[in-house]
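ARCHIVE RECORD
Type: protein–small molecule complex
Small molecule: iron/sulfur cluster
Source of inputs: curated submission
Record status: active
Notes field left blank by submitter.
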Amino acid sequence: MKLKINKIQAKSVLTPSKLPGADWVVNSYVGCSFGCKYCYAAFIGRWKHPGKEWGSFVDVKINAPEILKKELLKLERKHGSKNFGSILFSSVTDPYLGIEAKYQITRKCLEVLFGFGYQGEISILTKSPLATRDIDLFKKLNISVGFTVTTLEDKVVRFLEGNAPPASARIKALKQLYEAGIFTYAFIGPLLPHFTVQKEKLEQLFTKLESIGIKEVWLEHIHFTPIVKGRLFKYLEKQAPGLIPEFKKADTQEYRNQLEKIIKSALMGKNLKLGLNEVIYHRKVKQLNK
Ligand code: SF4
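STRUCTURE (tokenized, with ligand):
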């Protein structure tokens, strides 16, 4: 699939967040070249690039650093402080896509936050080892850097996470960040259905994360919006129809209860804090935000 890159002028960059654990989000790009099969952000494609496949386009918010600077000054005037809450990079793209190496939009936005003297928490969530490029900057900020690690198996990544970097590269990057003194965390989401049948895989994942210095894990149940179901099931029908019943089962409360028991037992005796003290479930979060 050929990647189409467009440069765009963003109207806003710092957006109020509806996600648990974040007050604001910064998305340096529109679209995501990783194109994970379960991505809940794929709805953006319908809206911004109708008819285009998720993963086939990325819009670069070329003016994002300048806009962010203006927004920070405006919010400082409003709040009378340099702390307006926690900021997450990113919610509907990956902040360290391959093209970030060239455009450096995420890096420049972080430099703006540093130059402004932002005093709130900043959090990065990525699947890309390119994040290690910015260790120098992370050291100057009040930041935590998280990697999404849904599995330890590179073949599962290739199957479900499109062009995203392999799990082994993410583990290596997390270790490098930890050794550089950066606070790191792991995000296991969506929780894949095989964890209920191969319980030892979840246990192995936690053990690996603990061994590379992770102290906090965030877990999230799969979020089956109509667009997620449409894309994922169309892909599975072609590639592995036998997995469809497993994924369908993952959309029930009974399944979520069963998985949470497995998680509880796998976490027992480990020095891993569960982010928000619960497994995130998007529909529940939505109801709470109403
Ligand atoms: S990396 Fe994140 S935003 Fe990008 S396609 Fe995968 S799930 Fe979606």
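CURATOR ANNOTATION: The chain has 13 helices and eleven strands.
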